[in-house]
Amino acid sequence: MIPQSTAAQEREISGFGLTEPLVRIRPAASWVPLNFKQLWAYRELLYFLMWRDVKVRYKQTALGVAWVVLQPLIMMLIFSVLFGKLGGIPSEGIPYPLFAYAGLLPWTFFSGAVTLSSNSVVNSANLITKIYFPRLIVPIAAVGATLVDLAISSVVLAALMVYYRQVPTVSVLLIPVLLLLLIMVALGLGILMSALNVKYRDVRIAIPFLIQVLFFASPVIYPLSLVPEKLRWAMALNPMAGIIEGFRAALYGHRSVDWTSLGISAAVTIVLFTCAIITFRKMERGFADIV
Question: How does pLDDT run across 186-218, given as a tens digit for each residue?
């Protein structure tokens, strides 16, 4: 939505001889799904909302930001015992703790970003109903705040690679591309769910279930090679599958990147992101009336 003022209109307030300007705020008619210029104009508000989300999440917690490290680290230890040692799940020639953590790192970001962003518009009802700003900033800020957690958790990954003497190869240069795809898929699903959540409050209940299903449909605790080859294309329709496998291949260089799975995941991510932006723009006109 872009504020557009109509021609100046004035009406007299009876009894006082004063005038009051009337301004109409309405969405601009544009075929462009994402207005980068407008988002840039409100960048300070974006930074403020990101910082607010970070502070609120760890306010009055005993361990604070340490939870960012403990969550994937404890999960890695549990998975290493249950699936690495007891379950005997292969880890493609690398230590299972490294294998599991490389999957948990992007997954933890994805699940946290989608959960926060899907509830962000409803949780910001007081702000949305009082002032104008691009509503898209709200779910973007929620995902941006989760990037702080990802950066902190990445330090643990670096420490694990040093401990296991895992030297990165030239394939690590693919990480920025994979990170971009990871952010896009989290934004796409988070933005779509945040818009639907305003009208259908079932979304708040459905999101944890959806994330749980996607967890088992993603190669977080098992390699994609365990899936029969004829079914891997279907697995790749879950964009997190190709992204997680790409992260492992890029970090450890233990095998070549599965470009087919990554290509399918990238295509699904772009389609999801585009559809989410278009849906959000169509529904945001009624946010202030519904939320």
Answer: 999 999 999 999 888 888 889 999 999 999 999
Q: Is the dihedral of CA 64, 66, 71, 75 positive or negative?
A: negative
pLDDT of 13 reads 40
| Residue 43 located in a structural domain | yes
Residue 203's domain comprises 33-290
Of the ranges 29-43, 84-98, 233-247, 277-291, which one carries the lowest mean pLDDT score? Answer: 29-43
The structure's pTM equals 0.84
The answer to whether position 211 is within a domain reads yes
The model's pLDDT over 241-260, given as tens digits with 9 standing for 90+, comes to 999 999 999 998 877 888 88
What pLDDT band is residue 9 in, cutting at 50, 70 and 90? Answer: very low
For the chain, how many structural domains are there in total?
A: 1
Distance in angstroms (rounded) separating the CA atoms of residues 193 and 142: 13
- Evaluate whether residue 210 is within a structural domain: yes
Q: What is the 3-state secondary structure (H, E, C) of the chain?
A: CCCCCCCCEEEEECCCCEEEEECCCCCCCCCCCCCHHHHHHCHHHHHHHHHHHHHHHHCCCCCCCHHHHHHHHHHHHHHHHHHHHHCCCCCCCCCHHHHHHHHHHHHHHHHHHHHHHHCHHHHCHHHHCCCCCCCCHHHHHHHHHHHHHHHHHHHHHHHHHHHCCCCCCHHHHHHHHHHHHHHHHHHHHHHHHHHHHHHCCHHHHHHHHHHHHHHHCCCCCCCHHHCCHHHHHHHHCCHHHHHHHHHHHHHHCCCCCCHHHHHHHHHHHHHHHHHHHHHHHHHHHHHHHHC
Report if residue 17 sits inside a domain. Answer: no
C-alpha distances out from residue 51 to 135, 172, 241, Å = 17, 30, 30
Q: What percent of the chain has pLDDT over 90?
A: 45
